[in-house]
Predict the 3D structure of the following.
Amino acid sequence: MSITCGNRAGHSDGQPAIHATIDAVRACCTAGLTWACDWLLARTHPEDAETYTVECGGLSWHLADGRGTTCEFGHSHIYAEVRHRERWDYADDDEEARRLARQGVMPFTMDGKPFDLDSDALLPAAGLASAL
C-alpha cells in the first residue's frame, strides 16, 4: 500500500512523499524526530546475480513507549537496556540462541520471532550446573 503524505515541511525537498503505512504518515506528521532507516538489506543484481547491500531508507521514528525505534517497513530495534530488563535478546543463529537460553535469556531472531529451541539442547548446561 502506498499513501501520499501531505507534510511538505517534513521532507527535505518540500514535496509530498509516499509512505508504506498509515503509521509512517502519522509519524511523519507528529513525531518530533524522524530519519532514514539504516537497516541493511541484501539485494541481488538481476543481470549477474551479484549480491550487494543497501540501506532500507524508509522513514524511522522512536516507538511511543520509548523502548526503541521502528521504520515504515517494519524494521525495529529495541534498546539493549530494555532487552536486558525484559530478559531477552537477539541471536544471529541457533548456537547463539542456545547460549542465551542457557543463561536464562529468551532468544529472538533479528526480525523479532522467538527461536524454536529443542529443550534437549539445554540439557548439557543443566547437567553441568547440577554437577557443580
Remarks:
- The longest strand covers residues 40-44.
- Residues 123-132 have pLDDT under 50 and may be disordered.
- The radius of gyration is 20 Å.
- Residues 22-30 form the longest helix (9 residues).
